[in-house]
Design brief:
By secondary structure, this protein is α+β, with helices and mostly antiparallel strands. The chain contains 3 helices and 6 strands, in the order ββααββαββ. The structure holds zinc ion (2 copies).
Length: 151
């Protein structure tokens, strides 16, 4: 099969933050895309478990990518079968192409309830984390340093 690229744009919320999910503990948090892509941000630390992961893509994004990939493959397959159907129209062997059922492409959600913007003074950057995490204390997503809760 030929390689193909699927483009998925991850929406930002009203404050311009993009939703991330830690693959290790499943925690959701948000960071501004500019900070994620910034050259001096090497690693992103999960604010809950404090560990570094390679990717913080949310399940939504993975599911959407899978659905899009499947639809692309099924669509291509259908096109091929259609061609074959036309070619075999008057021959003994007949091919009938059935339109594939489309996988639902669920839009990515950018909002998770009760998150608040937190200033990580150690790195002079902002992040959005769950209220409870802010209350209890968390790790700075940019340097992994511990931040005291706002109790
Ligand atoms: Zn985590
Ligand atoms: Zn920091």
């Amino acid at each position: 099969m030929d390689e193909f690229t699927i483009k998925i744009s991850i929406p930002t919320d009203d404050d311009g933050f993009v939703l991330l999910q830690c693959p290790k503990c499943g925690e959701y948090f948000k960071l501004p895309p500019n900070d994620i892509e910034s050259d001096d941000v090497v690693d992103i630390y999960c604010p809950l478990c404090g560990l570094v992961s390679d990717t913080y893509i949310t399940e939504d994004v993975i599911e959407l990518a899978k659905a899009k990939a499947l639809n692309k493959v099924l669509g291509d397959f259908y096109d091929e079968m259609k061609k074959l159907e036309r070619k075999t129209r008057n021959s003994i062997i007949q091919v009938k192409a059935n339109k594939p059922q489309k996988e639902e492409e669920i839009p990515i959600k950018s909002t998770i309830d009760s998150m608040e913007i937190v200033d990580f003074e150690c790195c002079n950057r902002q992040g959005k984390i769950r209220h409870l995490l802010n209350y209890c204390g968390c790790y700075c997503p940019y340097c992994g340093g511990q931040k005291d809760g706002s109790k």
